[in-house]
Each structure stands twice: as structure tokens, then as C-alpha cells.
Amino acid sequence: MKTAVDLIEAKKRGETASREELRAFFGGYMEGKVADYQMSAWLMAVCLKGLEPSETLALTECIIESGTSRPKENFGKPVVDKHSTGGVGDKPTIVLLPLLASMGALVPTLAGRGLGHTGGTVDKLEAIPGLRQMFSWEEGQKLLGENGAAFMTQSDEVARLDKRLYALRDVTGTVDSVGLITSSILGKKLSESLDGLVLDVKYGSGAFMRTYEDAEKLALSLFQVATSFGVRTEVILTDMNEPLGEWAGNGVEVMEAVKMLRGEKTEERFYNVTMSLAEAMCRLAFPHDGRDLKAELEHKIKSGEAYERFLKIISAQGASAETVAKLDEILAPAEHRLVLKSGESGYLKEIDTFALGKLLISLGAGRRVLTDPIDHKPGLRFVKRIGERVEKGEPIMEIYSSRPLGAEDVPGIFVLGNDPPDLGEYIRPLKPQAANFKE
Q1: For 266-321, how does the pLDDT look when each residue is reduced to its tens digit (9 = 90+)?
Q2: Number of domains the chain is built from
Q3: Is the same domain home to 125 and 249?
């Protein structure tokens, strides 16, 4: 059997390791026989040379097997989930769990915290006082049986290998590998014992994958590995060249999701992306039963059933009756408001969505380092969208901060032009046969 050094040297040459070699390598790492510096060297070689599909599959297997998986008791219902690669204002998960649960599915989501410039569902939901999100699989199973869904974060019992690998990747500049990203995402999601999985892969200035081509490569990798494990899978690629929704932040995004669940008017892109993901999840949960899924989903929102399910879920997870009654007040934005106005007239052509994410971090709504506390009150409200006409002196964005701000504190984010930009599709289903899987 090859040693750790042999595998590092082989990957430097671009060679492919066997399933047995990788299982021994990662098993040795978890047992302390392979050092962190050796694993870091292998991760860097992977970033330079890539992983073959068979290696990505083997790594995903090792991550799943390194922890425990959700018990397979499904209470006679299909088990589905969704994962997003993240972006600014990306809040559909908060709507999708109660909505799919009201349709008769089980949704055992393992959500994450913010990563880099992107917000995390766990951080956002912590704006609700008392809400508990860390559960064992046994506790989560009880919540699923009672409510059909649970907002959960990864515990120490799940995907233990991934937690160790990601800690190394974060500090060694080895995050940006399609194979490593694929195995990290699916190692956690496939621990949920799913029947169906929908993957929302973002591309654009506010996403980790800046180009559509790179996002498509990741999307295909995710699709092929997930289906190799026998999980029905759909992948949708969505545009993150501008924020998703009217608001970005923590509490303000939860409030926007709550308003959608109540059937109130919602920003068009947020509504359409969320409903596209919901339909895809329903297709996987309820295949070939002839239901008008779109109409049923819309009815669940308009009738208030999805919102009532949301309240039931958060109450079961620790939100008090008083908190539930005062959600609007609790989730209101910070007190200091700065209106950013346009210095010229024209059409809004571009938004530096990455810079918006960094602005939120500077306001305290995200982390510079892991130990930073999160302020749940700051937020950004987007008054104008790409393609809209803006007159000189008109508001483009409102900034809500826990401290006073001046316009000089805000970086250049918006680009105007004389002509309206060409607006392409912002929701694109993956066509697996159209892309090359090799990293």
C-alpha cells in the first residue's frame, strides 16, 4: 500500500489514486497516522492537478462514513433537501422547509454558517431569540416526525472527516477545487439518508463561482456524485450578479422570508428562484403522481398553511410564544439609516455583489474571523435592480446600521450606463450531457 508521501507525489504528477488507497489515506488521517502537514500537501496538489470523478466519489464515501447518518425511518414520507452554494441575500431555505413540509415531505436540512462574503442560514435564524439549531440525529428525527422539517446545523457526529479537512483548507488556500467542494457538500447532505436532493449552484459577482462555465462544472460534478449514490437529483444554476431579494443581512432576510410565507408581495427574483427550487424538490418527492405542484405550492402560501408550519417548527425548536407574537418587531432592521443616492442618471448596469457582502461584514452582519460575534440587526435594502432607470438624486440602496454611517463609508458598488443592459435568464436547469465533468 502506498504511503502518504507516495500519494502526495502521485497527485503532484497528476496520477489517479485508487479507492482503496484513498480509504487507507483518510482512515490513517482520522487515526492520527497521517499528519496535518501531509494532508495539507495533498490538498494543495489536488487544487493544482484536480480530482478524477472516481477520487471525488471515494472522498465523498470516506466523509459520509467518518460520522453517523440520519436513521432511515421516514414515517411513510419522502425525504428531500436542498443545498445552495451561497450568495448575498440567499434566503430560500427559510421558505422551503415549511413549504415542503406542508406538502407532505420530510426536510432534514443541515444548514451552515456564513462563509466569506456570503451569509449563512444558521446565522440568519439566530436572529430569532431562543431558536435552537444543534440537535443529535435522534432529536432531529423526533422533530421531523412531529413537524415534517427541522432547521439544523452540523453536529460533531456528522461528517467528521470533512470538518477536519475544511479547517485545513480554510487556512491553506485550498478551498477552490471542484472535487473538494463536491465531496464536502455531498458528504454532509448524503448523511441525511435522502430520497431526493436539489442543488442551487450560484454564479456571478456575488458567488464563489464567478463564471457560468465554472458553476456548470461544479454543478455537473455534484449531479454525477449524488446520483452515483442513488439519490434522485436536480441541479439549478442561478444568477448571483445581484442580490437575491429586496433585503440582505440576517434578521431582515428572515423577515423577508416570513413575508413570503404569509403570502405578502415579494421581490420577483427571490419569489421565482424559491418557487423553482420548491417545484424541483416536489418533483423528486412526488414523482409521477399527476399533481399540479406549482398550483399546490402557491395555495400552501396563499392559504397560510406554509406560514403556520413555519411557526410550528420554530416553536418546537425553542422560540417562545412571545417571540412568535413579536417576530416583526424582533426582526426589524437596525436604527441608523443611510440612503445611498445616485450621483448621475442612467440605467443600472452592474452591481458589485461581492462588495455588498463585504459591506455587510463591515457592519457586523458577518465574520472576519470565526470567533467574531454576529450583529443580527444591520441590513441592506435594494431600491433599484439591474436594468432599471435611475435618475440623479434617486435612492439606489438603503443601509441600516447599528452605528451612524456616512456615504464615505460605502465603497463604489453600482455601475450606471446610458443604455439598458441585456438581461439574460437567471434560472437555468443543468443539462448534464452539455458539460465536461473532468476538473
Answers
A1: 999 999 999 999 999 999 999 977 789 999 999 999 999 999 999 999 999 999 99
A2: 3
A3: yes
234 plus 366 within the same structural domain: no
Q: Can you tell me the distance from the alpha carbon of 67 to that of 65, in angstroms, rounded to the nearest whole number?
A: 5
Strand bridging mode 80-84 / 196-203: parallel
- Alpha-carbon gap, residue 194 to 153, rounded angstroms: 16
Q: What is the dihedral sign for C-alpha 294, 258, 194, 58?
A: positive
Q: Is residue 72 one of the residues assigned to a domain?
A: no
Q: Does one domain contain both 219 and 104? A: yes
pTM of the full structure = 0.92
Domain span at 29: 4-49
Q: What are the distances in angstroms from CA 228 to CA 48, 374, 399?
A: 25, 38, 45
Is the pLDDT score of 205 beyond 50? Answer: yes
Among residues 285, 319, 306, the alpha carbon closest in space to that of 98 is found at 306
| Model confidence pLDDT, tens digit, residues 79-137 | 999 999 988 999 999 999 999 999 999 999 887 665 556 668 888 999 999 999 999 88
Report the CATH number that the domain containing residue 14 is assigned in CATH: 1.20.970.10
Active site residues: 83, 162, 169, 184, 188
Is the distance from CB of 201 to CB of 221 less than 8 angstroms? no
Q: Is residue 267 part of a domain?
A: yes
Tell me, yes or no, whether 107 and 10 share the same domain: no
Tell me, what's the pLDDT at 436? Answer: 45
291 and 361, same domain (yes or no): no
Residue 332 cell numbers, joined: 426589524
Q: How far apart are the first and last CA of the chain?
A: 26
Number of H helices, E strands in the chain: 17, 13
Give the CATH number for residue 379: 3.90.1170.30
Q: What are phi and psi of 202, to 5 degrees?
A: -90, 150
CA angle 332, 92, 334 (to 5 degrees): 15
Asked whether residue 66 is domain-assigned, the answer is no
Distance, in Å, from the CA atom of 269 to the CA atom of 277, rounded to the nearest integer, reads 12
CATH classification at residue 305:
3.40.1030.10
Query: Which spans in 321-363 are helix H?
Result: 321-325, 327-330, 353-362
